[in-house]
Structure formats: structure tokens, C-alpha cells
Amino acid sequence: MPEPLRSTIERLDRPSAYYLGRNKRRKFNKDRDGIDERERTPEEPEDPLKDATTLYVGNLSFYTTEEQIHELFAKCGEIKRLVMGLDRFNKTPCGFCFVEYYNHQDALDCMKYIGGTKLDERIIRTDLDPGFQEGRQYGRGKSGGQVRDEYRDEYDPGRGGYGRAIAEERQKEEDEYGRGR
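The structure assignment produced for this chain is given below.
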């Protein structure tokens, strides 16, 4: 009788190695009261996105205005606040924003109907966000913009041309070529 076929693909729903290792360390831990942690009932972690009313909107053109975003996103519900993502140093838009609605259902409707649509010839992405805090409106890249824009190697006119690292390399090569090496 032939041996049954075995799958070479790992299951996607199996617990991660991090989770298994974390529980193994806890296996013999006792809390301050001397009660084994395994005897306690596990508490469900609070989901920060359960009642989220804020959306992160990404892959925007650098030239998209607040008015354009407001016009599109107001179709799903009344907007409480709109915060444009800015370059930390130049204070110019850098391709993302936060849209805050008054209720959770409007945010879900927006994700469903507007996520994946085109705005300024770019497919935008929307994700629920736990909430906007001051300071998050700035890009986190070294040059003040978004990290992903620094290393982009293709030309993208909607996001300012080439990525900053590539543009600097090209400029350096052009300068060397101009001097005759």
C-alpha cells in the first residue's frame, strides 16, 4: 500500500513561533499570589479598532488637496476632521492623510466603498486607525517624508518623481559626468 501524500505547505492558521515561545516561558510562571497562570481564565485583549472612527488613507498623490479628499470621503458620512500627512521639514503633503468620522459605521462604509478607488489617477488604500494623535501627521523618513518614498526606484510623477535616494544617486552621477570624471 503506498504511503499517503503529505502536504509540503504549512498551515496558515497555525499559531506563530512567537506565540508558542511566549506561552512556553509562561508555563511555569506563577503570579504574586502564587497562583499558576494556567489556572486563570484568559482575558480577551481589547481590540483598538473595534469602535475606530478614524481612517488612514495612503498612496495619495503629493498634489491631492484637502478639498478633493473631503469631497470624496464626505460621500460616506459626515467628516469630523481631516488631517493631511506632511513632510516633517518642508511642511508639504507627502502622500497620506487621516479622515475622522463621527461614527464607526461611516468609517466601515468608507473602507468598503472608497478603498481601492482612484483619486488623482492613483489607487488609494484605506485602513482603520486607532485614532489620530498629534505628531503622526508627519512622515517618518530620514528626509521628512514617507520611508517608502525614499527608496522607490521607478519614476512616479504623482509622488514627486524618483525616490530621494535614487534621485541623489542620479544627481551625483550627473555631476561627476559633467566634471569629466
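Interim note for the steering committee: The first strand starts at residue 54 and ends at 58. The mean pLDDT is 76.
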